[in-house]
Amino acid sequence: MKVFLLDSDILMDFFKKKSFAERLLAELYKKGKLATSILSVSELCSGWNKEQTKFFVPLLFDLVDIYFIDKKIAQLAGKFRFEFKKKGINLPVIDTLIASTAIQNKLTLVTRNIKDYPMKELKIYKIPEV
Asked: PIN domain spans which residues (predicted)?
């Protein structure tokens, strides 16, 4: 079964009730399983107040599977940062960890921020025009 790793931007749009994000998640749900990184959970929580966090986090955990960081993911992310830094590209740690999570677990990343994920090994879901 295909698993779609939802990036923080997609989840933020969904929780802001943006209609394209609601349609996108419904479409992806029909095609496979929905998931996200524990790092995206952290990013979401950093933008929510206490009440929103108390309401939205359990909802998120019911909606998607959560992927955690392990040694292989951490090493792959470090390798990506090293390789891209040699090319003059400074990738954020969190983005390399999310990409490595998708690659290591054979997931398809769903994001609007394609420029943040230049890894050729990464499968990215092409989001239909909004």
From this structure: 5-113
SS3 111: coil
Residue 37 pairs in a beta bridge with 67
Owner of token pair 């954020």: 92
Q: What is the architecture, at CATH level 2, of domain 2-116? A: 3-Layer(aba) Sandwich (3.40)
CB contact at 8 A, 14 and 22: yes
At 130 the pLDDT is 59
What pTM did the predictor assign? 0.94
Per DSSP, 47 falls in state T
DSSP 32: S
Give me the numbers of helices (H) and strands (E) for the chain, helices first please.
Answer: 6, 5
Give domain limits for the chain: 2-116
What average pLDDT values come out for the chain (130 residues) when binned by 10 residues?
96 93 95 98 91 88 96 98 97 98 99 95 86
